[in-house]
Amino acid sequence: MSDFACILSAVTNVTLYDTLGKDSIEYIMDQTYIKTVILSADKIKNLVDLKKEGKISRCTHLIYFDEAKPAEIEAGEAAGLTIVKF
Q1: Cα dist. 7→10, 11, 38, 65 in Å?
Q2: CA–CA separation, 18 and 12 (whole Å)
Q3: Sequence-ordered list of residues with C-beta below 8 angstroms from that of 20, at least 6 positions apart, any chain
Q4: What pTM did the predictor assign?
Q5: Rounded to 5 degrees, what are φ and ψ at 71?
Q6: Cβ atoms within 10 A of the Cβ of 12, count?
Q7: DSSP letters for the chain
């Protein structure tokens, strides 16, 4: 659904693979100027950690599906992310 929304809005969709590690995620996000990430809730912690380290400064929003842990959402918001459920 989010892919179709990107297509209809003429927004480039970039895929992140957490199996490549945090360094690769940081590099991809830096090179593509990603501001918003749509992800499964179990990946929130990885991006919150990167945000706290100052490595993904352009990222401002996370949109998650599934059920997220309230502590991870609070940590992300404390780090400057807006986190909402899809």
Answers
A1: 5, 6, 15, 20
A2: 19
A3: none
A4: 0.90
A5: -65, -35
A6: 9
A7: -HHHHHHHTT-------GGG-HHHHHHHHHHHT--EEEEEGGGHHHHHHHHHTTS-TT--EEEEES---HHHHHHHHHTT-EEEE-
Interior angle at CA 26, CA 50 and CA 51, nearest 5? 20
Structure-token pair, residue 37: 């990430």
In tens, the pLDDT along 15-73 reads 998 888 899 999 999 999 999 999 999 999 999 999 999 999 999 999 999 999 999 99
Residue 17 confidence (pLDDT): 87
Residue appearing with tokens 């459920």: 85
- Which residue is it, tokens 């929130």? 44
Pick the CATH number of 16-85 from 3.90.1150.10, 3.40.50.980, 1.10.760.10, 2.60.40.4070: 3.40.50.980
